[in-house]
Amino acid sequence: MKLRLSDLKPGQEAIIRQFDNDEISLKLMEMGCLPGEKILLEQIAPLGDPISIAVSGYALSLRLNEAEHVFVDVIN
After folding, report:
1. Residue 1: what pLDDT?
2. Radius of gyration of the chain (CA)
3. What is the rounded (10 degree) CA torsion for 48, 61, 25, 15?
4. What phi-psi label fits residue 15: left (phi over 0), alpha (psi between -120 and 50 degrees) or beta?
5. Which residues are within 8 A (CB) of 62 and not within 5 positions of it... i.e. 6 or more apart?
6. To which H or E segment does residue 28 belong?
7. Contact call for residues 60 and 52 (beta carbons, < 8 A)
8. How many whole angstroms separate alpha carbon 24 and alpha carbon 58?
9. DSSP code of 65?
10. Closest CA to 67 of 21, 1, 13, 30
11. What phi and psi values does residue 63 have, to the nearest 5 degrees?
12. In the prediction, which pLDDT does 24 show?
């Protein structure tokens, strides 16, 4: 099932498939968010922004406007 990273719920795992914004994709790839990489949405801030994901063995916080540009395939 293909979704945007911003659509995931806490505890969901997914595989990064593609980006729809070149500027954001470069920034995220430099931080380890590469296509094919497995991620876990760990938590969402109380007001909904930012989100925290586990990727490449570390936690990364992303704003929702960044997460909207990442397409993922949900694992569970």
Report:
1. 60
2. 11
3. -80
4. beta
5. 5, 28, 50, 51, 52, 53
6. helix 22-30
7. yes
8. 19
9. H
10. 21
11. -75, 150
12. 87
Q: Which amino acid, one-letter code, is at 47? A: L
Residues in the chain, pLDDT under 70: 1, 76
pLDDT of residue 14: 95
CA distance 53 to 32: 11
| Domains and their CATH numbers in the chain | 2-74 (2.30.30.90)
DSSP letter at 30 equals H
Nearest residue to 40 (alpha-carbon basis) of 4, 2, 5:
5
Q: How far is CA 37 from the centre of its chain?
A: 10
